[in-house]
Amino acid sequence: MKHILKCSKCGTYTLKETCSCGGSAVSPKPQKYSPEDKYGEYRRRAKKEILEKQGLLL
What we know:
26% of the residues lie in helices and 12% in strands. It contains 1 helix and 3 strands, in the order E-E-E-H. The protein is of the alpha+beta class. It has a 3-stranded antiparallel sheet, with no helix packed on it. The longest helix is centred in the last third of the chain and has 15 residues, at 40-54.
């Protein structure tokens, strides 16, 4: 069964692993949520630091 994929380069949807623009296609679905996420704290901390550097978070 084929799944729809989204090009990481141009953002178009395709059924192939590579897009016609030359970019790789990835699944557009978000990762599954797990309450026992071992690395969630680190991801949230990294995202907070990036937003603070951009001036979007106080």
